[in-house]
Amino acid sequence: QVQLQESGPGLVKPSQTLSLTCTVSGDSITTNHYCWSWIRQPPGKGLEWMGTITGSGITYYSSSLRRRMSISRDTSKNQFTLQLSSVTPEDTAVYYCAGDLSVATTTPKHRGQGTQVTVSS
Predict the structure, then answer these.
(1) What is the per-residue DSSP string for 42-111?
(2) With contact defined as beta carbons under 8 Å apart, do 71 and 38 qualify?
(3) What percent of the chain has pLDDT over 70?
(4) Residues paired with 93 in a beta bridge
(5) Phi, psi (degrees; rounded to nearest 5) at 118
(6) Residue 92 scores a pLDDT above 90
(7) Which of 2, 61, 73, 111 could connect to 98 by a Cys-Cys bridge, CB 3.0–4.6 Å?
(8) Nearest to 98 by CA among 110, 81, 90, 113
(9) Distance from CA of residue 49 to its chain's centroid?
């Protein structure tokens, strides 16, 4: 059973960089069975796919966020990380990490419980 757990600060100041880590258990992040993604849900809005890193380390990003975000991984810890720079209050959301066969999905097979991130001074 694949399980994912997000971790990171719950409060980020505007213009700073948001950094979240997802720890995966139950399978390796280098497997070709899954792609590993970040998804978010701003208050009162729907789910938004942000980006994906595949088992081979190839990254895909949402066109609206690609200039500000990156996804990296630490295979020794079975973790992957989101960095989102120059955040604004519009980046306030619940952030989820997820695992699925598909790259850009908002309905993944496996998803973490989510972590609230608030951008505020």
Answers:
(1) -TTS--EEEEEEETT--EEE-TTTTTTEEEEEETTTTEEEEEE-S--GGG-EEEEEEEESSSS-SS-SEE
(2) yes
(3) 100
(4) 117
(5) -115, 130
(6) yes
(7) 111
(8) 110
(9) 9
Q: Encoding tokens for residue 91?
A: 């980046």
Reading the block at residue 71, the tokens are 């996804």
Q: Which residues pair with 83 in a beta bridge?
A: 19, 70
Question: Minimal CA–CA distance to 21: which of 4, 45, 34?
Answer: 4
Nearest to residue 18, comparing CAs of 111, 81, 74? 81
Vertex 6 angle, CA 37 and 42, to 5°:
70
Q: Which amino acid is at 77?
A: K
* Six token digits for residue 68: 């500000």
